[in-house]
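Re: export button greyed out
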Amino acid sequence: MQGVFPILVTPFDAEERVDEDSLRSVVEFNISAGVHGLGIALGSEILKLTEAERSLVISVVVNQTRGRVPIVVNTGAQANLTAALYSRQAEELGASAVMCLPPSPVSAAEARSYFRAISDTVHIPVFIQDTMTTPVSAGLIRQIAEESEHVRYAKVESPPQPTQVQAAVAASGGLVSIFGGAGGTYLLEELRRGGVGTMPWPSQPHAFVEIWNAWQAGDERRAVEIHEREIAPLALLSTAGLRLGHTIHKELLRRRGVIRHARVRAPSDPLDDITTRELDAICDRLGIGSAVA
Amino acid sequence: MQGVFPILVTPFDAEERVDEDSLRSVVEFNISAGVHGLGIALGSEILKLTEAERSLVISVVVNQTRGRVPIVVNTGAQANLTAALYSRQAEELGASAVMCLPPSPVSAAEARSYFRAISDTVHIPVFIQDTMTTPVSAGLIRQIAEESEHVRYAKVESPPQPTQVQAAVAASGGLVSIFGGAGGTYLLEELRRGGVGTMPWPSQPHAFVEIWNAWQAGDERRAVEIHEREIAPLALLSTAGLRLGHTIHKELLRRRGVIRHARVRAPSDPLDDITTRELDAICDRLGIGSAVA
Amino acid sequence: MQGVFPILVTPFDAEERVDEDSLRSVVEFNISAGVHGLGIALGSEILKLTEAERSLVISVVVNQTRGRVPIVVNTGAQANLTAALYSRQAEELGASAVMCLPPSPVSAAEARSYFRAISDTVHIPVFIQDTMTTPVSAGLIRQIAEESEHVRYAKVESPPQPTQVQAAVAASGGLVSIFGGAGGTYLLEELRRGGVGTMPWPSQPHAFVEIWNAWQAGDERRAVEIHEREIAPLALLSTAGLRLGHTIHKELLRRRGVIRHARVRAPSDPLDDITTRELDAICDRLGIGSAVA
Amino acid sequence: MQGVFPILVTPFDAEERVDEDSLRSVVEFNISAGVHGLGIALGSEILKLTEAERSLVISVVVNQTRGRVPIVVNTGAQANLTAALYSRQAEELGASAVMCLPPSPVSAAEARSYFRAISDTVHIPVFIQDTMTTPVSAGLIRQIAEESEHVRYAKVESPPQPTQVQAAVAASGGLVSIFGGAGGTYLLEELRRGGVGTMPWPSQPHAFVEIWNAWQAGDERRAVEIHEREIAPLALLSTAGLRLGHTIHKELLRRRGVIRHARVRAPSDPLDDITTRELDAICDRLGIGSAVA
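Workaround output, generated via the alternate export path:
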């Protein structure tokens, strides 16, 4: 697996139930843009879903995707047993790979036992997920992969992301493929340092696929140009407020007509007037939909 | 509600299933010691349980308790909707109160909406849970209580605990009763600053009840004496390693013959030889059980 | 005071002594670009200087500036007495204002006593400096200003910066003027939320002044355009590695011919090959100097 | 070097000047109790002193000590050059060893270059200081020692302290001697795990020396008994408030008649009434001085 793997949002209806039609629509919007895979993870508000809702989301996405691209599902949990259980369930529901962040706080020995337990339970690849609050060092990623046969991928997004991707690639000895995260903000910096994929928001798949293709074709100048025009302004806006990413990218998908409601499951600070106008200005320039709700 | 509310451990059998008999035994051990309430929360490894396991644990504890003391159940979650759902379920299963830590990270406005949503869903008291990683300031506790009719308790355990308890009591205006946590390490410091209860491990309920009774009777010297002899040495040992508390207090309950297995759900670093000998020495002095497994 | 106040770098020679000529050159480069003020602060590696070196840097900058623009000097320290002492010394050396981050960790009462002590010692304005590791909440900024007559400014750069600037402006009641920091990354977002100034690196003063002038003239589109072309790419690169900002902006000043050596006082990770090529590409596009050392 | 190395407080007079007589008195009080060394470090409020005051404190302590025990001086700084400079100055003033915490944040490569620079400048042993906010892993301690000939000691006090001491001892390969810190709270736990020394507050040197001697004589029961009676109650009280340690231990020394004033350099929250009564009760039991100011 490599390339652009957008993390799907979970659209909700006005009663905050999973909006299956809109979810299917996000899947199609991304596959038709040429993405190389799909993800269900933190960006999908997965930690805000009940167990039943998580299974529902996985099933709908698998059913809609029909094998056209691989699907990576976040099944991390606070215990080896529950992470292994959720991972096996995801596999049974049709996931192509699982991705787990370790419990927090955790010793290196505990992290190793955790990924070993998951790897021993599934028959599909396992991603280690490194985040700011649950960092997994480059050396530990390698050690876990040596001990756990299905752990062959890591998504690295503890800051500073490009440096961490580079360290993970260097330590991997070719055993682990390194993806970046962070909304694709540092995609080109990560590719230059050996990253082989990215897991951005699912609101701009065409731009990300274009960047990927330009990079593969050796046209770095063009890749940078698209990133600066399409991705960077939204990345900046997303970090200008607390947890604003979900809200902005759902709103973008709504304006594009992909999902019906932009609602983020509470607690979630709403888009204030100033931020809305900033988003309007960016959408204007990018020719994205209208603000009419 | 006030007094000693031990947080029950969740005993597991060798296959890591909930050991219902041992769980009932922990309930009896504590009630017979004269505790004023029981809790099911982080110390119960609740974050390591599936939704079904959590319901099972609540049901067993409610069934065994038969109304003799109130039961506080941690039902915190990452979303208003799920926290409210789990809270209503706990109430339906027989909980006397729910206790929720806010999602993290969270703005003050989000924290207020979160507790409002929970309060609006239940008919029983709600505890705000303040922890090191999810702090809720004294002023915010008061503001939430003013807006949410069922929020009438807070368990304060962000460091430095006694100072934080004091601030919460001062800000509460009598609207919120403040409990301490932190394994009861600072129980007397908290009582002197207006705390009205504690939520310790469930392995030493007699000692905690004796301390409570001595304090109520005005015999502070005796309260200090018991705390220093019975509680402080284990509190020190529990903080000497990462997340060692669960392991030590389950082992203590096993040695006392209350539960069958001391197993903590992985990932969990085991008791090493040196720590085991340190625990042996403390148990010897306190006349607690034998180390024979 | 308002507008663009670049924080000067402290250039070093090959023996790591302060290079006075290069420092004077950075001052001229910025003043001639039309900046509204200058700063000597964290970006000046001030925490890496001895007391004597700090005084030297202040003296050289004051002497070179000759009153053409105000100079803000960071004089924060771990104690009221030392912060007050360094503040008075800076005033005597010719500083127009001082800027202090509070000690860490600190209670609200301690922060108030700290700024009171500084304010009582000087006759020039005092900036409160809020950072990620030493946050000062919007409400506390207001309270300090009410108690301390010279505290009339705050530089707000704890994340998310624009939201924090907005909160500080709202709480200030017009008593405190709010500047942004963070290398000017969020300058426009901050201006839209009531910020009145920025303290960026001193390597791109023309671009920052142009953005400022466009904003003042109501030409927001042009302001955004310059920011995206000139500032954003370097801001992204600066956050791609740990503490890379000093290294990149000193290198930029060297390539522009403003300073002789780009050396950052150790410990400091050097620019690796990939990052150097990334910087080369940005410099090429912006028409900045040559990479010949 | 091994054993009990109290970190001296810096006594101040009513004008907050260093009170040399009281400082000499603290030195004598500790040496006469039989301590094995003395330290000037964070517990000495060293970060709150000017450069001149630091030199004064070192000189007075060296002069008073007259070679009877070794003196370890904290000379850490944010730059290699300044840490090396302060270390050489400390050596010239008569320090027996220097102790440095690394700058923060810092990469492993930077930490290595930092200690190398210090080691290359002095002719006396260098302690690595590991703290909660500037952690140095066990493996990195070993690597630094291999590269830097004078780095032969580490003071380990990032939590959980006994576990970290154990890891550092295991990784050291006999090349580095490991001391504990944390006010001696975990002294026995650290000794059992291979620690060879402790750096407590200087207010209870007799008790610490007694514990040390009992431990050396193999009488662990007695060591525990003294620790629980003399050290643990004050350790608990010290952690019950933010940065309360300096205030409590200066007050203890004042009550013992060792220093004239208990003043801690501001900002520093004062002892409130409840805490004062708690301290009174502990002093009563330990037979320490009177509360009369």
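Chains B and C do not touch (no CB pair under 8 Å). The button fix ships in the next patch.
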